[in-house]
Write a structure and sequence with these properties.
Strand order of the largest sheet: 1-2-4-3-5-6-7-8
Largest sheet: 8 strands, mixed
CATH class: Alpha Beta
Shape: globular
Number of domains: 1
CATH architecture: 3-Layer(aba) Sandwich
Distance between the termini: 37 Å
CATH topology: Rossmann fold
Radius of gyration: 17 Å
Number of helices: 9
Order of helices and strands: EEEHEHEHEHHHEHEHH
Structural class: alpha/beta
Strand content: 15-25%
Amino acid sequence: MDYQLIEENGFKYIETNGGEENLLLLHGLFGALSNFQGIIGHFGDKYNVVVPTLPIFELPIREVSVTGLVESVADFVTYKGYDKVHVLGNSLGGHISLLYALAHPEKISSITLTGSSGLFESAMGTSFPKRGDYEYIKQKTIDTFYNPEVATKELVDEVFDTVNDRNKAIRVVATSKSAVRQNLGDKLHQIAAPTLLIWGKQDQVTPAFVGEKFNELIENSKLEFVNECGHAPMMEKPDEFNAYLEGFLKDLAAKEANY
């Protein structure tokens, strides 16, 4: 990516300044800014694409939770002075997007979820992997995708380093447990913003039925399935993902213009 990581006021983020509307991208638990390279490349000149690093490993340990991350996003949006945002989240980032939208509906132009947690997820199972078990981490990372080649050695090494850092591992477990406790099944009917759901047909972490359930519970939502694709469609099938997102955003703009 050609965009520089900005560090200011305790925030780390990328911002493209490519348009007037803000497209805010929120990564998952093991995610990174690089996960959104395809979106940034496609939309960076048309929208102000903004990708903050979620402070999973920086928050004070007592504040490590989904709620703490939502508050961080809210503080970031306030600091930047954004009027409204199109928020897009993958996995845990989708969960945070929904909680932010519920807490600050006036700030939301639209929501896009892909492989979102919040209803059901099966990531690490019931126990955290033993530190040092590289093959286990490699297989879990591969299982995130339909095409195993997407799980590059660099990506596996990144996840492995995280779970082998005791401080980071504790934070991952705390955040995961917090996410499970924050089930949104009884709150999704409150979401009024236009919502796009882009789901990998072969997602093993948040299976296809999860996307269908989100579609059922969020009234103003549209579900698109991506075939031969796992938990991160924006990484595995970027062209198809971007086409769905672009169509959705253009439809919203047209409705707004005719309103």
